[in-house]
Specification:
Elements: E1 4-8, E2 15-20, H1 27-34, E3 40-45, H2 46-62, E4 67-72, H3 81-94, E5 101-106, H4 108-120, E6 126-131, H5 134-140, E7 145-150, E8 153-160, E9 165-169, H6 178-195, H7 197-212, H8 215-234, H9 249-258, H10 267-284, H11 290-302, H12 319-326, E10 337-342, E11 348-354, H13 356-364
Parallel strand pairs: 2-9, 3-4, 3-5, 5-6, 6-9
Antiparallel strand pairs: 1-2, 7-8, 10-11
Helix pairs in contact: 1-2, 3-4, 5-6, 5-8, 6-7, 6-10, 7-8, 9-10, 9-12, 10-11
The chain binds nicotinamide-adenine-dinucleotide, the ligand O=C(O)C(=O)C[C@@H](O)[C@H](O)[C@H](O)COP(=O)(O)O and zinc ion (ZN).
Ligand LNCXM5UN is lined by residues 139, 143, 145, 154-155, 187, 238, 242, 245-246, 249, 330.
């Protein structure tokens, strides 16, 4: 089976991201090569279990690896302290130990939750990411940010804990609902908008093939993983330019929390709106030109994503409440806001000490 391997070159703890169609069938052999004799516990959700758990288990059994499974309810609400506690207990009940492995088989919710449980149980178990959504393959399975949500906001409780392997089988994306694919695509486009205008041009021309499952899908996943691997290797804990990966997230996370972490607004959908807001705000501050902002909006709209907060159905918090959520952002330093702003497509930068009054005014006049 042909596969692309991207190395995450962390000093002392490097790991591979392996990308290709049909790789789930190789899970057992690849784990056996990495951790001979390990027992495993698979954390997954109901939707993924119904479609891909049998393949994963058969592959592990074929390589002589024992596995048990923990199946959570699908959706963002599972990134909660209650589900976290339950997953930790269930892992402990299997008696797996520090030489064994947790396997996160699912999207970003499973990956963030299982990764955090792996970080916490017995003060740290190794784990493998087997991402099954576009979003997880291009973003959440890589880089070791794990965690859950709080009533105060998104991802506010968690740990940096790197996986020992990421196995991205792009064929499993064939069973992903269209809306989830679109949401994940926002994070794909993000890499172009951060610092790769050439990739954004390529996406404008090729996005349909990424959705259709042609070779462009693997190419896009590999380009995103290479970009993320490079940033993570130089700034694992986000003391510097890893924050660029947060483009669209300060606005987006507030909207996601404002929508109650519900299916009204998926993470990727919130990021799409948040990236357009970051462009619009940059234009308003005289940093970027309106044509670039319009081009971003047009592209995200053409793949079926919403691009304005007013397109979110149902009640949303007012601007003061959104600002209170933004004040909880992890990039805040001693009360000062940090945003990822832009000078144009592929020219994002970290803006520290952004004036909350200006952001408040911007949000107040948003349609
Ligand atoms: N840790 C990070 O660096 C990072 C990066 C980006 C996003 N995230 C987090 O990821 C989460 C979003 O992840 P997501 O978009 O993957 O959502 P998700 O995990 O909720 O998965 C989306 C939906 O698709 C279903 N599903 C998953 N794989 C499937 C498949 N192959 N076939 C059919 N259905 C499938 C799931 O059951 C779920 O209903 C958010 O919580 C976000 O904060 C984390
Ligand atoms: O890996 C990162 O770094 C990112 O910021 C990737 C984001 O897409 C992701 O949503 C991440 O979970 C957001 O991180 P947070 O620190 O703002 O919670
Ligand atoms: Zn994200």
């Amino acid at each position: 089976m042909s596969a692309t391997t991207v190395r995450v070159d962390l000093a002392g703890r490097p790991y591979d991201i392996v990308i290709g169609r049909g790789l789930l069938a190789e899970l057992g052999l690849r784990i056996a090569a990495l951790r001979p004799g390990a027992n495993t516990v698979i954390v997954t959700d109901e939707n993924v279990a119904a479609r891909h758990l049998d393949t994963a288990k058969a592959s592990l059994a074929g390589a002589g690896i024992t596995s048990s499974e923990i199946i959570i309810a699908p959706g963002e609400k599972s990134k909660s302290i209650d589900v976290f506690a339950s997953v930790c207990d269930q892992i402990l009940a299997t008696r797996i130990g520090r030489n064994d492995l947790v396997i996160a088989l699912g999207g970003g919710v499973v990956g963030d939750l299982a990764g955090f449980a792996a970080a916490a149980v017995r003060r740290g178990l190794d784990y493998v990411q087997v991402p099954t959504t576009l979003l997880a393959q291009v973003d959440s399975s890589v880089g070791g940010k794990t965690g859950i949500n709080s009533q105060y906001g998104k991802n506010l409780i968690g740990a940096f804990h790197q996986p020992i392997l990421v196995l991205a089988d792009t064929a499993v994306l064939d069973t992903l609902p269209e809306r989830e694919f679109q949401a994940g695509y926002a994070e794909v486009a993000k890499y172009g908008l951060i610092d790769d205008a050439k990739f954004f041009n390529w996406l404008e021309a090729n996005w349909r093939h990424v959705f259709d499952g042609g070779p462009e899908r693997e190419e896009a996943v590999a380009i995103c993983c290479r970009a993320k691997a490079a940033i993570v290797a130089r700034d694992e804990k986000e003391t510097g330019d890893r924050a660029l990966l947060n483009l669209g997230h300060t606005f987006g996370h507030a909207l996601e929390a404002g929508a109650g972490f519900s299916s009204r607004l998926l993470h990727g959908e919130a990021v799409a709106i948040g990236m357009v807001q970051a462009f619009d705000y940059s234009v308003e501050q005289g940093l970027a030109n309106g044509q670039d902002a319009e081009r971003v909006r047009r592209h995200l709209k053409s793949v079926g994503l919403r691009t304005r907060p007013s397109e979110i159905e149902g009640d949303m918090p007012d601007v003061d409440e959104l600002m209170a959520l933004i004040a909880q952002d992890k990039k805040v330093q001693r009360g000062k806001l940090t945003f990822i702003l832009t000078r144009g497509i592929g020219e994002s930068f970290i803006a520290k000490d952004v004036d909350p009054a200006k952001v408040h005014a911007f949000l107040s006049q948003q349609g």
